[in-house]
Amino acid sequence: MFLITEKIILTPTVSMLKIKAPDVVRHAKPGQFVMLRVEENGERIPLTIAESNLNDQTISVIFQIVGATTKKLNQLEKGDYLIDFAGPMGRPAKLDGLKKVCVIGGGVGCAIAYPIAKSLFEQNTVVHTIIGFRTKELVFLENEFKRISNQFYLVTDDGSYHQQGKVTDILKSLLLKGETYDEVYAIGPLPMMKYVSLLTKEYNIKTIVSMNPVMVDGTGMCGGCRVSVGNEMKFACVDGPEFDGHLVNFDEAIKRNKMYESFESKQYQEVCNSLKEVSK
Amino acid sequence: MINLSKEKNIMPVQDPNYRINNFDEVALGYTLEQAQDEAKRCLDCKHKPCVQGCPVGIDIPRFINKVIEGQIEEAYRIISESSLLPSVCGRVCPQETQCEALCVRANKGESVAIGNLERFVADYHFEHENMNPLRIESNHIKIAVIGSGPAGLTAANDLSKLGYEVDMYEALHTPGGVLTYGIPAFRLPKDIVLREVEMLKLQGVTLKTNIIIGQTIYLDELFEMGYKAIFLGTGAGLPKFLGIPGEMLNGVYSANEFLTRINLMKAYEKRSQTPVQISKRVAVIGGGNVALDAARCAKRLGAEDVYIIYRRSMKELPARLEEVHHAIEEGIIFKMQMNAKEIIGNQDGFVQKIKCVDMILGEPDESGRARPIEDINSSHIIEVDTVIMAIGTTPNPLIIQSNPDIDSTRSGCIITQNDSGETSKEMVFAGGDVVTGSATVILAMGAGKKAAKAIDLKIKSIN
Prior knowledge:
Radius of gyration of chain B: 23 Å
Shape of chain A: globular
Shape of chain B: globular
Distance between the termini of chain A: 30 Å
Distance between the termini of chain B: 54 Å
Number of strands of chain A: 16
Radius of gyration of chain A: 18 Å
Strand order of the largest sheet of chain B: 3-2-1-4-16
Low-confidence stretches of chain B: none
Mean pLDDT of chain A: 92
Strand order of the largest sheet of chain A: 6-1-2-5-4-3-7
Order of helices and strands of chain A: EEHEEEHEEEHEHEEHEHEEEHEHH
CATH class of the largest domain in chain A: Alpha Beta
Helix content of chain B: 25-40%
Mean pLDDT of chain B: 92
CATH topology of the largest domain in chain A: Rossmann fold
Oligomer: heterodimer
Largest sheet of chain A: 7 strands, antiparallel
Number of strands of chain B: 16
CATH architecture of the largest domain in chain A: 3-Layer(aba) Sandwich
């Protein structure tokens, strides 16, 4: 059993949980993920590590409420327990030797982009950050990003906060101004990562994306998380989750993410209904 | 005294029309009378050919004799001298190519139903005996067993019986390895596996789930934690794909994924939150036990047409004979001498059909089986919505990647010295599928046993 030591509601649809996990903390590095189960009969779901803290032996995960399992996860409070929590899984981000990097986060992907940006900043890499959200009420980690960015940009799709636009608009204007980067990190919805990668390809800037496909075990066993990278079949759990954005077949990944759409929306509805029952 | 019937006592089974709607065990097991009647078919041969066919060398005629005498507990004790998991092996061993293949009775008629008798003895034991394992005095030497499948369970058992303090590490949330995630409940009920694990725990073995050695704890750290030896029984978990167009379509599963969703995550139960595709028409590529398991699971989930697509003929199917019979009874359609060439999808990326070619059987290849050759003039389109790849697995690369000092083959199998399971890394032993590539439960158990003995010898030689 894994104790939740803290819960922070970041936006109406995004929460952070801090979980006591001494075994996972020991080797956890930015870019890696954990597999967890909320309850018996629950799904195993992968969540990327937002922060690992050796002092209090905790791992923080930030998640968006998108389906039945994350809805249930969000019902838990400080002092509750998760029944399973395993990791760190996947390969750590390779950040050594980078002098100047643009880190781009979209929506809940900012939770994964943040530890990368923070590590880079702490190793004295020049960090430009661009984060984007649909609308003002969904913005989170703004101040945290500001603290670890040499330049910081925030955009919203509807212009309700900061500049209106897409993260690619900012990136494009920076590149047009003549900014150069050793690498671009893009973490967010698949279409965002796709369009960032298309743009950076024009400028020949190496771009790393973090894939978050369907997984069952997270240890290389099921192959459900397979991604086409440069026409090779890769498993996001053991070969990734980070890949070269210029080689990833995003259109295929977008289709693969819809595999269980109808099942998931049904499950989600059931959980919502049962929660309504409870609250009555 | 000897039962001269040329045929085995028939194993009672659930009616096929009924069982395709549930995941309960197909075979129901002998009664005491049936078991004793079957046991009397044994000729008690002096040269015991059947024992030669058993990978762990169970003294088969001796235990069968005890069944005749009604001393079932004694029969169980005899089996236990050589095997840890008789209730598992009685159900999943390919007896027709092992012990039963060498049975003298098979020269004229059917062999003695050794597997069914083994299963009977094990089940009888658990129904009638209290779980009172011997408490063995500890020698305070710690050993880490990595993986809780057949190899790990056996090594842990033997080592703990020798007095070692054994911690067994499991990456998933539930122990049992392939017995839990791979073999469906209708062939091996999951309470049997959990019962065996509980026995080990009572015996003093500590189970540590949710720990991925190589990621959560590095191999070398285990030595720093005080373990004197490590046994790697991490299995062959990495699924293979054919490399044909269309394998990224939605509805294409590795058998591992399909079976893990069903067996480990219980996707067939309403209360499970793990999804699995509900299919109408399913093609399973491959002809081994895993292929048949996947096909029969699909049938039980409601698929109307389920095809097994295999390159050779029925004669060469590597699956257990009993499973082939059961699959035929359940209406699985065997498309033999056929191979998949391409999976075709719709515009949303879901499987629509599979394109296959005929295979002609040529001269025997290095495996001794007829080499299948493509008939390039043939082409078949089968309409399906799900394709399951059951063409084998290779060892999980996690441990080898992080430990380059462990020698491995190009296909990722760990290289061990002869029978001992010793790897190129000091005090690290390995056995089971991680060494052989995907094989059988009994071979993995045998490897776990040999490694346990070798570890004991090695530790004693140092101290």
